[in-house]
Amino acid sequence: MAVPARTLINVPPKAKRGDVILIRTLISHVMENGFRVDNMGKPIPRNIITSMVCTYNGEEIFNATLHPAISANPFITFHTVATESGTIAFKWTGDNGFEAEASASISVE
Question: Can you tell me the distance from the alpha carbon of 93 to that of 72, in angstroms, rounded to the nearest whole number?
């Protein structure tokens, strides 16, 4: 079950076949590394995004495993080659059953 999360994704709406395109994504998530304690000295449970997977028309093109050292609201960028028109989809998963998904369309000429 996907938990609502605010995501920003930037995929070029159009590209020429063979172009290298830049993909940028940001997800709003308060990351807690699990090493801090509250004002009563009780450990604050870890709550991080543990992975992000990106697919292009269903084929995985990028994945990342995230660890407690990642910042809140992770911003991830990478490049891929525009091969065909379709959908670039993102899925984030994390602690406590966290899941979020977003997608963008690209038209390749």
Answer: 14
Contact 23, 77 (CB under 8 A): yes
Domain 7-108 homologous superfamily, CATH: Immunoglobulins (2.60.40.10)
Strand 86-94 to 49-56 pairing:
antiparallel
* Rounded CA separation 47/32 (Å): 5
pLDDT of residue 1: 43
pLDDT (mean) for 80-100:
96
Integer Cα distance of 9 and 40 in angstroms? 39
User: Residue ranges per domain, the chain?
Assistant: 7-108
pLDDT 10s digits, 17-41: 999 999 999 999 988 999 999 999 9
